[in-house]
Amino acid sequence: MFKKGLILICTVILSLVSAGCNEEEPIKEEVIQHNWKESSLFESGSYTMIGEEGRLGFLYNDSEVDRFYPNKTQKYMWHFWGNEDELIGDIEVLGTHENSNEEIIVVPRKENTFLSPNNGADQHSPTNMMLPKSGMWKLDAYIGDRLFGSVYVKVHEK
User: Fold this and answer.
1) Does the pLDDT of residue 18 top 70, yes or no?
2) Which terminus of the chain, N or C, has less C-beta within 10 A?
3) Structure pTM?
């Protein structure tokens, strides 16, 4: 009688364990969370900019007019500080959303053939930028093939 009870208990336990192993877990979508925060605002000349003071930034004062909204193209004037060697080369800006590792082209590579100071910066470049969805974005600015710096911006809900 003891053996039959022990066999019954073992059978029940094995059935429960194998049933638990056979249940499929739902597939979870991987969410990449970078701990990004919006870059600081700073003053240069008579303008407010977002970025890294003394290195790079663009005209932006976090007003409704300047804010990023999904799929809305706006003009932004980039400014760069550095020595002449650093500032020679084509300009390109790539963007990465906080929940992705995929880069998109925000400002296509454009020829930058002259140094032109503006608003206290050593060089400037007018651009049109559009980001496709809300959330935090990292904008990597390249001059030539070198990363010059990054600016973090928030794209607001409409």
Assistant:
1) no
2) N
3) 0.78
